[in-house]
Amino acid sequence: MNNVWDSILQWLHSVGLHPNREAVEQAGTAVLNSASDVATTVGQAASGMDVASLLALAAALGWASGFRLYVVVFVVGMLGATGWMVLPGGLHVLEHPLMLVASGGMLFVEFFADKIPGVDSLWDLLQSVLRVPAGAALAAGVFGADNATMATFAALMGGTLAATSQAAKTTTRALINTSPEPFSNVGASLAEDTAAVGAVWLALTSPAVFAVLLVVTVIAMWIVTWLLWRFLKAAIRRLKAWMGSNDSPPPPALPKT
User: Fold this and answer.
1) What is the DSSP string of the chain?
2) Quick one: angle between helices 119-141 and 229-242, nearest 10?
3) Would 2 be classed as within a structural domain?
4) Which keywords does UniProt give here (predicted)?
5) The pTM is what?
6) Residue 60 pLDDT > 90, yes or no?
7) Helix 183-205 vs helix 148-176: angle between axes, to the nearest 10 degrees?
8) Which phi and psi angles does 94 have, rounded to 5°?
9) CB burial string 162-183: b at 16+ within 10 A, e below
10) Domain assignment present for 208
11) Which tens digits make up the pLDDT trace of 62-102?
């Protein structure tokens, strides 16, 4: 652990900050203790899940996947891999080392790509074909193959919620990108990072509270998407152009001679 504190201290010195070692260790220990307390709370909540709690988790995974798929996959996988949470149903695949490496790598790329004006919209367009089916799959995975009826229902719910959040994200980002300054992009991206992790945490610890907030949030997203529909249509046109789609009518046939 001393090597870790030494590395952090050297990095702080390299950026012009010069705290003493004791202060760095105290701050780091406080952060680790807080993370451990949160993980313990989540683990205790997940260990005794009923059907309502599982549905809340499925809804959280689907909704959050609509704008932060790799955060969801990596965070849930890490909870299972570290033993802080016993993953239900078919979510055990998320804790496999290869899955953690892949989702962690994509999370690293997305974290920065999503905060650069213009690049964020392009990234959203590229990811839009993955987030909805992935949200449906994650929601269905909560129940696994042993409960086909609930898994099917969860998949439909998760896919719908993922499509809702994806549409709201795309429209709001298209609007934000009409402004040249980058700070609104960074702020929106950080808010989405927090919302994705917070949704999973709240679904595990307070399913009823999460359900109420989810209903309010989804209604708000529908309203935002409707009000900003023209921005969504512009984003869809850019996606079609990027994929080589051509909606122009075919040329008229030449008259027969």
Assistant:
1) -HHHHHHHHHHHHHTT----HHHHHHHHHHHHHHHHHHHHHHHHHHHT--HHHHHHHHHHHHHHHHHHHHHHHHHHHHHHHTTSS---TTGGGGGSHHHHHHHHHHHHHHHHHTTSTTHHHHHHHHHHHHHHHHHHHHHHHTT-TT-HHHHHHHHHHHHHHHHHHHHHHHHHHHHHTTSS-SHHHHHHHHHHHHHHHHHHHHHHH-HHHHHHHHHHHHHHHHHHHHHTHHHHHHHHHHHHHHTT---SPPPPPPPP-
2) 90
3) no
4) Membrane, Transmembrane, Transmembrane helix
5) 0.69
6) yes
7) 160
8) -70, -20
9) bbbbbbbbbbbbbbbbeeeeee
10) yes
11) 999 998 999 999 999 999 998 888 888 789 899 999 999 99
CB atoms within 10 A of CB 56: 26
Task: Enter the tokens of residue 174.
Answer: 């298209």
Classify residue 114 by burial, with Cβ atoms within 10 Å: 0-12, 13-18, 19+: buried
Amino acid at 179: S
pLDDT of residue 18: 58
Residue for token digits 């808010």? 191
Total domains in the chain come to 1
d(CA 141, CA 133): 12
Residue 254 lies in a domain: no
Tally the residues of the chain: 257
The tally of CA atoms less than 13 A away on the side-chain side of residue 50 is 4
- The angle subtended at Cα 121 by Cα 117 and Cα 124, nearest 5°, is 135
Question: Whole domain around residue 168: which residue ranges?
Answer: 42-242
Interacting residues of 182 by C-beta distance below 8 A, sequence separation 6+: 115, 116, 117
Q: Is residue 99 part of a domain?
A: yes
